């Protein structure tokens, strides 16, 4: 390793040699910027790495077994300049307990430092959400434009929004209370007519609206609420929501809307010019809600 001074990139996946004891190993690894590894590597390797490699900028980990690896946790904890983290899970089991310590360590390391963060998305990573809940009074993301968190309590969500300035344009959440955000442009919201009308009054720059109706809502309630929903949109939607001036485009994943009674109601408003287009798609991932 004396022949590789200032090593910048190291792929140690499936490594079998104790390279840390090679002559010149410490000096060689101190300048490491990018590391690729996997969870099958014994934890002792990561403990040794943590003694020398504390300025890694890119860390890429392949999870190829289900055993916890506390050495990876230690390696993350000592980093001083981590900018990129990639976790490749071949089992697609992000929520299992053996991953929690790794993501908790990652959250503590990086979340407080993302002062210029513009997009914050967490897809069911409970450990990251827990860290956000701890940081909610200190998480100041003044440039944040997109916020998408699952399994996040309303208080944490509210604190992040409150501390994030006025750049937020897109929020994906399911609140029980109204959160004021005058610059919001895109919103995914739990179907609730009273809160919806209040929200429309606050969000003066709203351009796109996706209503997510819970599966436990009865068909009769949905049908009864349809007319009132359209009245609310006409009455309270901001001028920026141009799709209802003069007509509204609606995308839904709820097959209830395809029943005869509801189709008649939709066709009525199509004829009146209130609805421009209505589409049903079976999967929410297929919905394109660009403004």
Apparent shape: elongated
Strands, total number: 11
- Uncertain segments are 175-180, 184-191
* SSE-based structural type: alpha/beta
Alpha-carbon distance between the termini?
Answer: 55 Å
SSE order and pairing:
Elements: E1 9-11, H1 25-29, E2 34-38, H2 43-52, E3 58-63, H3 70-77, E4 84-89, H4 100-110, E5 119-122, H5 126-135, E6 146-149, H6 154-162, E7 170-172, E8 186-190, H7 193-202, E9 208-212, H8 219-236, E10 248-252, H9 260-271, E11 275-280
Helix pairs in contact: 2-3, 3-4, 4-5, 7-8
Q: What report would you give on this structure?
A:
By secondary structure, this protein is an alpha/beta fold. The chain has a domain of 113 residues. The chain has nine helices and eleven strands. The strands form three sheets. It has a five-stranded parallel sheet with strand order 5-6-7-8-9, with no helix packed on it. The protein has a four-stranded parallel sheet with strand order 1-2-3-4, with no helix packed on it. Strands 10-11 form a two-stranded parallel sheet. Helix 2 packs parallel to helix 3, helix 3 packs parallel to helix 4 and helix 4 packs parallel to helix 5. About 5% of the residues have low confidence.
